[in-house]
Specification:
Length: 488
Amino acid sequence: MKNSYIFTSWFMFLGYWLLIASLTIKILINKKTRNSTIIWLLIIYTIPLIGILIWLLFDEPYVEQTRIKLIHKIWNQNNQWIKKIKNYKYILKNTNSKVASPLFQLCKNRQGLYGITNNKLQLLTNSQNIIDILIKDIHLAKKNIEMVFYIWTPGGLADEVAKALISSAKRGISCRLMLDSAGSIKFFRSKWVHIMRHAGIHIVEALKINLFKTFFRRIDLRQHRKIILIDNYITYTGSMNLVDPILFKKSSRIGQWIDLMTRIEGPIATTIGVVYSCDWELETGKKILPAIPKVHDYPIYKKKCNNNLIQVIASGPGFPEHMIHQSFLIAIYSAQKQLIITTPYLVPSDDVLHAICTASQRGVEVIIIVPKYNDSLLVQWASRAFFSELLESGVKIYQFEKGLLHSKSMLVDKQLSLIGTANLDMRSLWLNFEITLVIDDKNFGDNLASIQYEYINHSKLLDPQSWFVRSYWRRILEKFFYFLSPLL
């Protein structure tokens, strides 16, 4: 009995340290930043059993192997289809502004496509106005409507969109709706699922959560895109989920969510449609590649009056690796005069943080606008851990006070704009399915600058002197939540 106990104890002891050793080796050989590697090792060694579980759930970069192979196959097939667009010279342009050239060159080399021109762009900032325009477009749809959202929460304005979709489906329009399982949990528990499916709307629950899949996929891998496609010609994307901002998370008492959406008419819908097609095929196994628009289809092509150039960057497992992270870095390093960033969640990678600080130190006016109050307490405190280094480098940090600023944008020298769904945090940079528009256009940049300055008018500039004399307990909390930053 005694020998059996000793044997079991030694077996468990050796097994435990073999597990710790194997995880240590795995963390060290993964392509991680030095700080992230050190933090994960500290977590595993200081709280061993809990730390191992947290790492397996939130950091081990695995997806089901069959799924990852399928994503690669779908993307490669669709990428071959994208290359056919090169034959349509009337929508392509190979010359960029000086500040945009490096980023567009990266997109061309990694995604195989030049910038697409002859699009009509519109920036939308008022949620009621966005929904009103969207509902009008839905009612005018002639062929198809495709949507993907991270969050769809029933109630208020969201119900009006649902009713419009039902009306269009009943008159024969093909309607597809893809929603993230975790983000849209309230939708999938509501009556709307049955009502909309009964009307003929195809609804897919993306990255469905269940206990079994927890052992085969990171539980925080999410479908974070927000895309609307109508007739393969009109497209929306940006930061807004399908929610009523007045009702959404009202109990948090942080105010109304402030979003930024881009509505585009033109051929860029084709490339965004390919991204949607990849996501749809991954979840359903069915291919729905959009048709390439012809020059005679829409008057906008004939006018040749739109000089904007747009690239679409899609990220997520199976898509070109680290494209959004690379794009942010190149955009920041391209800045010569001014860089303005808006993000609700500021937990940048070491490389992005260094690029922002370096830009300020070489004379670029760098402005970051973040919400003063956040819906995530973890992120709110972790973000502050980066303030000191940013302020020491001369970065101006504005804290928005009129609600939760949810807009995700980057403006370089009022010429190069990046707008989409990606936050400046670890999940958006490395993990989630995201989409970002890269727009090379001075007029569009001026419009975005006006919106960003409007945010600044409702913000308070963080005073460096006051910040550096903050209480000691605040510093401890910031460092503690920074310690958890790999989970954010």
